[in-house]
Amino acid sequence: MKIALNGASGRMGQAIALLLKEGGSHDLVACFDVETSLLTEHEMEVMNEADVVIDFSHPAVVMDHIHRYCLWGFNAVIGTTGWYKEMEKVKDWVEEGQIGLLYAPNFSMGVALLVKALNAVLPTLEHLNEFDAYVHEWHHIGKVDSPSGTALKLAQTILEGLSRKTHLSTEAQHGTIASSALHVTSTRVGHVFGEHYVGFDSPYEQLLFRHEAKSRAVFASGAIRAAEWLQGKSGLFTLQDVLGD
After folding, report:
1. Catalytic entry in 65, 139, 153, 165
2. Best exposed site among 22, 48, 178, 239 by fewest CB in 10 Å?
């Protein structure tokens, strides 16, 4: 498989490039970053006949990147977040371009399993009103967004599964929090790759789901696996589709 990489100079881009080099089963045929921006290119030939592009670039430019992938007919794996409010527009682009686009805020298969586990227990928790839900995440001090895209994905899963939670309340609260609010908090410290906690607390017990990333290789591996899965497909997908297969 021939892979183009957008965001090659970032932490995730470097991790993906290293894993591709070590694996040896796929070819990295094109790289783009701040110095070599895809947005300065107007011809699809710069992709060097890639089969798929993996994008870990920046929220400010990712919509322009996605538009190009759709216009040029390249399947894409999108790890960049910050564009999900434009989902309807992207759906139209994907349909018009007849490409496959797979997106995720986190490419850990463990996080995908965590979402699947939450979807399994939430129907029962819907009837156990004594359990109150929360989400907390830890990341390194260089993390740009807060809360993380993964924390927001987990929180959205809870909002969709628990009718008693109607909205998010993020970060520190300086007064009483509404019972209908789902509290989502973040810690930025040191070199933590990523830890996510989803808790359900009752007066007598607490149910806790925890995921810890040991290195960026887990996300790089998941992105490459997603690119492999996307071959020959068209439409809009998430990691849950990969997990379903």
Report:
1. 139
2. 22
Selecting among 26, 58, 116, 143, the annotated active-site residue is 143
* 137 and 93 inside one domain: no
Structurally, how many domains does the chain consist of?
A: 2
| Containing structural domain, residue 174 | 109-212
CA 122 distance to own-chain centroid: 21
CB 210 within 8 A of CB 195: yes
Whether 139 is a known active-site residue: answer yes
pLDDT confidence of residue 23: 85
pLDDT at 24 over 90: no
Q: Would residue 136 show up in a list of annotated catalytic residues for this protein?
A: no
Between 42 and 104, where is the model more confident? 104
Q: Do 168 and 225 have their domain in common? A: no
What's the predicted TM-score (pTM) here? 0.81
Instruction: Determine the pLDDT at residue 141.
Output: 93
Asked if residue 168 and residue 92 are part of one domain, the reply reads no
pLDDT of residue 244: 83
Q: What are the pLDDT digits (tens) for 172-217? A: 888 999 999 999 999 999 999 899 999 999 999 999 999 999 988 9
